[in-house]
Amino acid sequence: MNDWLAHLTAAGGRQVDERLWQFPQDDSPLGATPSCLSPLSHLGILECDGPDAARFLQGQTSANVEHANGEFAPLTTFCTPKGRMIANSELLKVGAERYWLLLDISLVAPLATQLGKYAPFYKVTLNPRDDLALIGVFGTMPSLPDEAQLPAPSDIDWHMSQQDDTVLVRHPGAGSRLLMILPQARAVSIWNQMQPNAIAVGNASWQRADIDAGVAWLTATHSDSLLPQMINWEALGGISFRKGCYTGQEIVARAHFRGQVKKRLQIAALEGGTAVEIGSEIRNAEGKRVGEVFQATPAGDAAVCDLLVVLNTSESEESRLVVGDRKLTLRELPYPLERLDPESVVAA
Q1: CATH, range 262-331
Q2: 327-337 tens-digit pLDDT
Q3: Minimal CA–CA distance to 40: which of 180, 217, 188?
Q4: 8-state DSSP, 315
Q5: Which of 24, 70, 120, 231 places its Cα 20 to 30 Å from the Cα of 335?
Q6: What is the C-alpha separation between 285 and 160, in angstroms, rounded?
Q7: DSSP 246
């Protein structure tokens, strides 16, 4: 166990598995928007570095790499030639020739392998950054370390700032949410600086905020099974329809312009606080399978389970839906289901 993980354990944390940390405060009501810190062990960083890094990524990703300018960190996805997502991520420019891909930890190695098929033709190296710590800072903002500058502008999500070896990225949510990325060697001291004014919570709290924001991060379970539009990625600005070709671009564009997407991501609540497995079937009143569970996280009061689901577009909030014998209730998305061009976000 390294110093960072040992410190989290000493602070009362318990590592349930590779992805999940829990803290004693998780079982108690947090009150009104407290300051919270959370180790985001379910996320990881794949680094692409070298003189050809921008050109290499431009041919593989749905984002226009030029939009990743050190201030805006666009959402993106990597697809198969058939348009199915291998992984989705956020693209951060952290150096003149260096980019970080923020994605689910289970897809860091698979994406490195996939991109590694093309890397020999470019002057790039692909490195999983296992030496980095990712910390979620959310709720009422605690005092940040002096070297951590807030991303600007403060009212736009997916913006980033960098000071030396510390990167902050603003993520959407009902309250402020910042994702901090820094070397594990410094994470202990930074955590201790913020801890006196914040509550340590497990990363399920951060994942619930992703659900509330309607933001879906693929895991290895989902890889190569969904079109980007099925998780509303174009509604979040994760697809540039104005850039040049990339792997899977033709299929993704055709699905958009011909309106061929028959499934969409929705937010839902499931009766009972026990999480259900990813891929669990959703059935309607006639017993027909109409979708599946994408992500499940027990709600803070444990009375319901918060879900992201991929559901047939023919179903509505009036539909009677179940997972097993548990009632499923759809919730409203916090964004419109329409194309958001990242070009307009960059220009804002």
Answers
A1: 2.40.30.160
A2: 999 999 999 99
A3: 180
A4: -
A5: 70
A6: 45
A7: -
Do 179 and 164 touch, CB atoms closer than 8 A? no
3-state secondary structure of 49: strand
Distance from C-alpha of 35 to C-alpha of 141, rounded to nearest angstrom: 6
Report which secondary-structure segment, H or E, holds 257.
helix 249-257
Residue 294 in contact with residue 217, Cβ under 8 Å? no
Residue among 47, 45, 43, 46 at smallest CA distance from 19:
43
Report the pLDDT value the prediction gives residue 129, as an integer from 0 to 100: 97
In terms of Cα–Cα distance, which of 185, 91, 197 is closest to 141? 197
Radius of gyration of the chain (CA): 20
**Which tokens belong to 128?**
């999983």
pLDDT over 70 at 309, yes or no: yes
The string over 113-137, giving b where at least 16 C-beta atoms fall within 10 Å of a residue's C-beta and e elsewhere, is ebbeeebeebebebebbeebbbbbb
Q: Please, which residues have CB within 8 angstroms of residue 281's CB and are 6 or more apart in sequence?
A: 289, 291, 292, 323
Predicted confidence (pLDDT) at residue 72 exceeds the cutoff of 70: yes
Architecture of the domain whose range is 1-241: 2-Layer Sandwich (3.30)
CA distance 309 to 290: 10
Instruction: Tell me the domain boundaries of the chain.
Output: 1-241, 262-331
CA dist 94 to 2, 68, 158, 340, Å?
25, 9, 14, 25
Mean pLDDT value across residues 4-18? 93
pTM: 0.95
**For residue 302, what pLDDT band results from cuts at 50, 70 and 90?**
low
